[in-house]
Amino acid sequence: MGLFNRSKKKLLFKEVKNFFKEGNYQEALEKNDKFLEIDSKNETAWIYNGLIYEKLEQYPEAIESYDKALEINPKNALTWFYKGLILTNLEKFSEAIESYNTSIKYDSKIIGSWINKGVLLNELGNYQEAIECQNKVLELDPQNETAWINKGLILEELGKYSEAIECFENVIRINPKNLDSLFKKGVLLGNLKNYQEAINCYNKVLERDPKNADSWNNKGATQAMLGKKDEALKSYDKALEINPKEADTWNNKALILSNQEKYQKSIELYDISIEIDPNFNDAWHNKGVALKALGKHEEALKCFDKVLELDPTDEKAKRLKNEILSSKF
């Protein structure tokens, strides 16, 4: 290759990288195409082609580019990782796992391959293998927040709340500013019926982020579990000031009013919840209970019918519907 071509290649590839860095992906692709006309066996250029197509969300072309790179160097663990990312985006999870496995085969220290493989195994219901992947990451990098979070979420899904809490406590230790993990710790403590500790977590979130509507909502729900109804209502009101479009909070507030036998007012709030989310099963169910308490049986039946339309297996709705029908005879 002559000096001119080498200089031209060097200049072209510099332009490819600059355009890519600046987010000008179409220009980067055009320059890279010209580069590959000069040197079609350049592994790095094909990898860049894949990265550019990924940014353009042209996933089949990205895979084709990574395959070209792998023809040149089939042992490049990073290319297998990149291919796995595209297959994940295409929801081809089994193929993506194969790519991550190949990446790990050639370089067992690529953390992203372990993390993503674990996430996909969890999606496929292979929970123990998923945890093992996150544990492998933590062997390589004990301070990896993402792996601790992923492990915690899997353990939560398995109902292992105490172990999940330990994971999120590690996240908080590594990064005290991670409010999502502090919030999640509150949720898990609530699941364990450690309600006051859960409230303490939500309070810590709210100290740093007073407009965190989810924390106000969950704080209200936890206060309600402790029988602190008036405090719960105040928390729900705070949540709704911040986010009036949260159907769950309207339903939660209405439920307290129903428990206080303020049925008409609660029905108004259930209606707001249903207007926001017409398929919100709990709101339809609770509205039906309130209507039944007021003796408005026909309207209540419509609510329970809606519940059963959304979830034909709902035994409570079936029982309440039968009670109303039986009372007619």
TrEMBL record:
<feature type="repeat" description="TPR">
    <location>
        <begin position="281"/>
        <end position="314"/>
    </location>
</feature>
<protein>
    <submittedName>
        <fullName>Tetratricopeptide TPR_1 repeat-containing protein</fullName>
    </submittedName>
</protein>
<feature type="repeat" description="TPR">
    <location>
        <begin position="179"/>
        <end position="212"/>
    </location>
</feature>
<feature type="repeat" description="TPR">
    <location>
        <begin position="43"/>
        <end position="76"/>
    </location>
</feature>
<dbReference type="InterPro" id="IPR051685">
    <property type="entry name" value="Ycf3/AcsC/BcsC/TPR_MFPF"/>
</dbReference>
<feature type="repeat" description="TPR">
    <location>
        <begin position="213"/>
        <end position="246"/>
    </location>
</feature>
<feature type="repeat" description="TPR">
    <location>
        <begin position="247"/>
        <end position="280"/>
    </location>
</feature>
<feature type="repeat" description="TPR">
    <location>
        <begin position="77"/>
        <end position="110"/>
    </location>
</feature>
<dbReference type="InterPro" id="IPR019734">
    <property type="entry name" value="TPR_rpt"/>
</dbReference>
<dbReference type="InterPro" id="IPR011990">
    <property type="entry name" value="TPR-like_helical_dom_sf"/>
</dbReference>
<keyword id="KW-0677">Repeat</keyword>
<dbReference type="Pfam" id="PF13181">
    <property type="entry name" value="TPR_8"/>
</dbReference>
<keyword id="KW-0802">TPR repeat</keyword>
<dbReference type="GO" id="GO:0008318">
    <property type="term" value="F:protein prenyltransferase activity"/>
</dbReference>
<feature type="repeat" description="TPR">
    <location>
        <begin position="145"/>
        <end position="178"/>
    </location>
</feature>
<feature type="repeat" description="TPR">
    <location>
        <begin position="111"/>
        <end position="144"/>
    </location>
</feature>
<dbReference type="Pfam" id="PF00515">
    <property type="entry name" value="TPR_1"/>
</dbReference>
<dbReference type="InterPro" id="IPR002088">
    <property type="entry name" value="Prenyl_trans_a"/>
</dbReference>
